[in-house]
């Protein structure tokens, strides 16, 4: 018999905890819509008490998402639970997720609480949360290093208090697949009442075992997997959604499980999260990496041509990938452009369509071929409605081999144009120095990288920059056939995010 596995996506909460991956409300809402389209059962939208920005993002997601449950995280304390309940009030399907650590090291050093006090707080939190909503998830943080019988005791008591999902996190990614599977089995065999609730697994990837551990949990009775798109998350990240989903699908003969995920939306979701967070997917990443379906060796290519299954265990189309075809040229009209976008899964209308079409035209003028990858980049760039304090208007850079490069940049703020010119050690340095001078503020650049979206010297260059503002990192991304323009746009985007971010203070979700 095939079991149904719930997919709980925590890209917007645990994923956002990766350095440099913080997202604003607009970005989170956009990702939440895509997660709903992907078919995730539960969207963990954030940690309501952590900041005003997080609270408002969860609220916005709760009012817009209809078919996925919207979940809000809280520690096992009263103000957190109230904030979580308040943040999801408008959701059609609501869940509160409350947690407290149960491992000896966390209880003694972090919480400074005895096991009895932790048990009391856990039961109290679930009882209180149950007063707000029916669907309650409870997590024993650091379950992977907790005493098994203490876990049995806590989980048994929280079920009595009304928990409907028991989550077992391997918070520090310490478990092996055999140990983690055995732990899930032990809980399934010993927790009283567990047959009436869902068992969830939440694994971190510190030893590269997050996917294996989650799947081992499933084989031993878990029916919910917590995961993130592209595996982003604290430190080495979380179980990646695309990996567990495709493992369950491709090896249904072994796992005998199904999910509700529309796998054709995987690639699009991966691209969106990568674009918004600025965190690139490594080329050899399973399922969504650029090389995941590429065959380089002659023997492999020959085999593939003779019979696809010689070297391919899945079809690229299953995750929504199609060949990187030449799609449109400079004579293509607005209708053809919008039809092609529909084929790629983008329903653009009004201003978004106008902006994307104008951008396509200007790229088609410069670039011989406009490929699907280019269209994904254009849509990502042109449809992100971020709060913009500064708008990039124009720029000139003079660079020769004898004198230092000099940039002149014009930005717009509240309808007023602001321009300046500065020299720099290189062209990008000159541009960034000029922008800093316009702002009248030093900006700490912590990372700058450039990728080519497709091949050829006329390819779109995709620039990602990260800047630091106190303890927060903001990411900006921009693409253009001119890498200097892409660099300027990415920098201005990161600065705008920083200025929005300064309105919100944040605390980290640990007890
Ligand atoms: O890793 C962890 O323990 C968590 C909990 C809050 C579920 O993210
Ligand atoms: Zn986690």
Keywords:
alpha/beta, globular, three-stranded antiparallel beta sheet, 511 residues, 17 helices, 4 domains, eight-stranded parallel β-barrel, binds zinc ion, TIM Barrel
Fold topology:
Blueprint: E1 3-4, E2 6-9, H1 25-38, E3 42-47, H2 52-64, E4 69-75, H3 78-87, E5 94-101, H4 104-111, H5 115-130, E6 135-141, H6 148-161, E7 165-170, H7 177-190, E8 198-203, H8 210-219, E9 224-227, H9 241-250, H10 252-255, E10 257-258, H11 266-277, H12 298-306, E11 326-328, H13 334-343, H14 350-366, E12 370-371, H15 372-382, E13 391-398, E14 406-413, E15 416-423, H16 427-439, E16 444-452, E17 461-469, E18 472-480, H17 483-501
Parallel strand pairs: 1-10, 2-3, 2-9, 3-4, 4-5, 5-6, 6-7, 7-8, 8-9
Antiparallel strand pairs: 11-12, 13-14, 14-15, 16-17, 17-18
The protein binds 3-methyl-2-oxobutanoic acid and zinc ion.
Zinc ion binds at residues 14, 169, 171, 202, 204, 234.
CATH-defined superfamily of the largest domain: Aldolase class I
In total, the number of domains comes to: 4
Bound ions, cofactors and other small molecules, one mention each: 3-methyl-2-oxobutanoic acid, zinc ion
Largest sheet: 8 strands, parallel, barrel
Largest beta sheet: strand ordering: 2-3-4-5-6-7-8-9
What is the end-to-end distance?
Answer: 40 Å
The counted number of beta strands is 18
Structural class: alpha/beta
Please tally the helical runs, counting DSSP H or I stretches of 4 or more residues: 17
What is the architecture of the largest domain at the second tier of CATH?
Alpha-Beta Barrel
Mean pLDDT metric: 92
Rg is: 24 Å
Q: Please tell me what the overall shape is.
A: globular
